[in-house]
Amino acid sequence: MLEIRDLTFHYKNQPLFDNVSLRLEKGEFAFLIGKSGTGKSTLLQMIYLNLFPQSGSVIIGDYETSNIKIKQIPLIRRKIGVVFQDFKLLRDRNVYENLEFVLRVTNHSGKEIKRIINDALVEVGLSHKRFNYPNELSGGEQQRIAIARAILNNPMIILADEPTGNLDPETSFEILELLQKINRRGTSILFATHDYDLVRKYPSARIFKIVDRKIIKGFLKKTNSEV
């Protein structure tokens, strides 16, 4: 479903990834871990096609970066949901309008938009907040709305880029549980974080750890932070 194959990427003449590979199966949940500055967000940007590798390729479904056409990129992005650490909600629009904006761009009808938004808000447990503005919501509620936005187009995969970085431990766990629930319904999730304490709550989850420009695959040991 998602494969990174022999990828090399240099940023401002500094090597960040050196011939790395990663494979995420359909419906799989995995953590992408590593210290700050190791390239977690950059790797997610390459999956979302904001950046492209110098060599190697990213394969998403039937598309591959080595031969993709520019006009295909918006179509691929509709299959990918993204959740950011800083929520990225439009401050001058209420919850419903934030979600409506995404669906208007993808040419859904008015009736479809209402149904899809209702379903997404029910999924994240915030139907009663549909007319609130972002500044009227807690950090955890804002992140739930960001997750609702990510699932609007029924994506194949959700890329969660440090989604709990601005949240307290209890709320962080609630957000992770919500993403786990969405995953159980068939959506693949790649959850980037440097919070090993959060990852330890799921010792059976698969881990991709970035170390020295490489990706080590495995499971987190219970005794320390090594894969």
How would you portray this structure in words?
The structure is a single chain. The protein is an alpha/beta fold. The chain has helices spanning 40-47, 73-77, 95-105, 110-124, 139-150, 169-184, 196-199, and strands at 2-11, 14-24, 29-33, 55-60, 63-64, 80-84, 157-161, 188-193, 206-211, 214-219. A six-stranded mixed β-sheet has the order 6-7-8-3-9-10, with helices on both faces. It has a four-stranded antiparallel β-sheet with strand order 2-1-4-5, with no helix packed on it. α4 (110-124) crosses α5 and α5 runs parallel beside α6. It is globular.
Please describe the structure with a list of short key phrases separated by commas or semicolons:
227 residues; alpha/beta; 7 helices; 31% helix
- The percent range for strand residues is 25-35%
- Spatial shape: globular
The spatial strand order of the largest sheet comes to 6-7-8-3-9-10
Number of strands: 10
Structural class: alpha/beta
N-to-C series of helices and strands? EEEHEEHEHHHEHEHEE
Briefly say what this structure is:
It contains seven helices and ten strands. The protein has helices at residues 40-47, 73-77, 95-105, 110-124, 139-150, 169-184, 196-199, and strands at 2-11, 14-24, 29-33, 55-60, 63-64, 80-84, 157-161, 188-193, 206-211, 214-219.
